Amino acid sequence: MTIRKEILDELLKDYDGTDPQTILGEGGLLKQLTKAVIERALEAELETHLGYKKHEAAGKGTGNSRNGKSQKTLQAECGAVELAVPRDRNAEFEPVVVRKGQTRLAGLDEKILALYARGMTTRDIQAQLLEMYGVDVSSTLISNVTDAVMDEVRQWQNRPLEAVYPIAYFDCLHVKVRDNGRVVNKAVYLALGVDIEGQKELLGIWLSAHEGAKFWLGILTELSNRGLKDILIACVDGLTGLPEAIESVYPGCLVQLCMVHMVRNSCKYVSWKDRKALCADLRSIYSAATEDEAELHLELLREKWDKPYPSVGRMWRENWSRVIPIFRFGEDIRKVIYTTNAIESLNMTIRKVSRNHRIMPNDESVMKMVYLAIQNQMKKWTMPIRAWRPALNRLMIEFEGRLKV
């Protein structure tokens, strides 16, 4: 439905642009229009329900008629709107535009969820809505709106998945949650897939008392049960037992350790004054052109650093089979799999929105917050990852028969 320009010109003929409150403020044109349009729509609905217009003779003897109006306060984006809702004598009229029991327009729910997704607390949302829209909502209403998201979360969490994701990332972060009167750290598990079109897709969110390979095994089994039958390359942060868990569910999967995590873990053993030099030597390993060159640089690193820091070289040697998969591929695929940055950016989003919620009241609140924050982030995933087509062609050759485009 398009409003004719002549009608808008008539409504705005007295507006000179000096006081926007005459349009947006309390008693302004926008609120008046909202009230007038909704009340006119309600009258039209009642007319359709009764089958005759007001004061028409056709209404006599029909057994039902108009029966005055009841007052209703509706919270809308323009503020609280006082409505006069028409009634019928038989109490059979069921309004559609504003249903019985409805206290707010749908647009207000979206505003509440958008603010919650950006990390605002209930008190912050109340203040923001009051300041920007003149809408005074209760904390109970905000909780009810966000609680309704849980049904959506459950459906999303159990949705079927694609049969093959060429690349998948697995990572975990921790949040503080109240649990039986105590504040504990809980692990939020995330699995991110890259589909055949090169589009990123979050496969699921899970919550546990702690991070561990056994819980990851349960997640991987769930992904398999939801239809994910093959992963070509899995990128992980080096949690002990996670590569083995992946390979037990997806035997043909190539597990690649994140080089950023490997360097970060190496620096834990090294004094501050030596870190810059050590990182430069580590870079020569994972940026090598071939596996043989990388191994040569590893031996040079051990000769140089084993005496002061023996744990560094030993850690790289013990994880060598999970370091070298990147050397099987060209630069296009290496850039995608040598680090878990794709999923780390999601972690950063979650940490940002959770900053105001230093302690979450319960597990359900964590799931709501994480889901809404990530859904907000996923709106930006409109393009495939960079240089995906040549990377896909290489993957189809490398993993012959496992990808069908």
Automatic annotation (TrEMBL):
One of its GO terms (molecular function) is transposase activity. It comes from the Bacteria. The keyword Oxidoreductase does not apply. InterPro entries: Transposase_mutator (IPR001207). Keywords: DNA recombination, DNA-binding, Transposable element, Transposition. It holds the Pfam family Transposase_mut. GO terms for biological process: DNA transposition. Belongs to the transposase mutator family. Required for the transposition of the insertion element. This is Mutator family transposase. It comes from Gloeobacter violaceus (strain ATCC 29082 / PCC 7421).
